[in-house]
Amino acid sequence: MKLEQFPLIIPNIDAIKQEFETLLQAFEAAPTAADQKNVIYDIAKLVDEVTNQLTLISVRYTQDTRVEAYEKAQEASDEITPLFQELYNRYQKALIASKFRSELEKMLGSFLFKKIELSLQAFDPKIIGELQQENKLTSQYAKALASAQIPFKGGVYNLSQMGKFLDEADRYTRKKASQAIAGWFGEHEEELAKIYDDLVHLRHQMARKLGFDNFIPLGYARMGRTDYSPLDVKSYRDQVYKAVVPLSKKLVRRQAERIGIKKPLFYDLSLNFATGNPTPKGDKDYLVGVAAEMYAEMSPDIGAFFKLMVERHMLDLESRPGKQGGGYMTYFPKYKIPFVFSNFNGTSGDIDVLTHEIGHAFQGYSSRHIKLPEYRDPTMEEAEIHSMSMEFFAWPWMERFFDEDKDKYLYAHLVSAINFLPYGVTVDEFQHFVYENPDSGHAARCAKWREIEKKYTPYKKYAGFPLYEKGARWMRQSHIFEAPFYYIDYTLAQVVAFQFLTLMEEDRATAWKRYVKLCKLGGSYPFTELLKRVKMKNPFKKGTISRTVKKLEPIIARFDDAKM
Ligand SMILES: [Zn+2]
Q1: pLDDT higher than 90, residue 302
Q2: Average pLDDT, whole number, for the chain?
Q3: 537 C-alpha vs ligand 1 centroid, how far in Å?
Q4: What is the pLDDT of residue 326?
Q5: pLDDT grade, residue 459 (50/70/90)?
Q6: Do the bridges between strand 315-316 and strand 155-157 make them parallel or antiparallel, or are there none, so unpaired?
Q7: Residues with CB under 5 A from ligand 1 (ion)
Q8: What is the pTM of this model?
Q9: What's the rounded Cα separation, in Å, for the pair 263 and 257?
């Protein structure tokens, strides 16, 4: 079946409820562990069926928001989802309380039970009010940012549209665009600070109600972290400080020389080359054709997978009227095939869709044999390994996408990934401070942000921008408001992706074998255990970061960036 032939079904929640109740009764009444295991698989099938229906509704709706039937289906889905979650929650409780638990753990692995226990720790009906309030506040933040109307150069732009002026070769344009953005944040500082302060107090209150000292352990539980603690993360940040910050400083100095600016300010750091950024050569059909060639040459398994995605119309890449913005990858558990959504815009971001998102999709497809959805879906830091590593596996084919801009693309890709690590840990350290000191207030939060920022990214200079100088620039990082403690996951995955890159240099066949194995394992193990199984180094272990970064240096040295 092709995507457009998938039947759109609005889940019948009453029928689902009945079926679920019957299965739950069968679970409780099962006379042996083996019988209970069979019911677990039946429940997994039902969960997959419903997820499949809900996923298709959201896919159709994002493909064309103007169709009334899709809008209605989406509204129904929004109502059904929490009801279904409630049923699933009851199953989780029954599962961990099973009288056959130790036998089930032997058959199914103990990670499933740990995972469920953690998610149950993070939720209790007594915090439903706070959770609803939290949703309201994060939507308020998103709405405030989305509604920005910034007059610039005779036009009016929202914040993401302003982005294109930030890497313009003309310095005056970059400065003026940055001033316009800072001006908007200045006008909305009080409003955003209040939203955040409310969020912090709300989260603290939830944590206290659930029996935690503060929000930090609850935040970790919400992220599903079973195998590392805030202390591990702290020593990881220290490793980044020692091993990555010096290299990052060097790379920024080289960049300043390349673009011919002696004392760069923060708005100069987004311009990589005085001659402009690399752009892909060709339209969507050309790029998809190149991607098909690339994957066929990379390996027969991924070649066949990409072909299947194209044949079954599982790539919706071009912008068109009515289509929602942004991009994502999702998975249809019943049809065992992923779907990739994006809005091509002629920048190198289009190639990232064809590498990064296809990495996510290939993992989804490779894990399709896993029967339990809890084991199929990787945790956040695991999921980004598949996508970020695929960006590197695709390197040898970049000339076909970028032509003479190939080296520019590769160099900028690697350098921005390295420079991302110090920024990523800045966001993380800040959040630990915030939730450890929930009453600190806006001024103290800003002062702390600036202090941490100076430590990890000393090259960010804000002369002439008093709002940023005092430390309010964190307000533009949506994860800080919307997804507490998530940000560090990107950096952890990046460190593993770097290991794949350096292993490819030494032995590409082994790197690919380990990558495919990782994709097949899905989310069957916690992060550090998963790494062990594919023989990749644990980023938390002392020395991993410096060894990984050292191996990147010869790769950087291959590029003659002064000539780019
Ligand atoms: Zn991703």
Answers
A1: yes
A2: 95
A3: 21
A4: 82
A5: very high
A6: unpaired
A7: 387
A8: 0.95
A9: 10
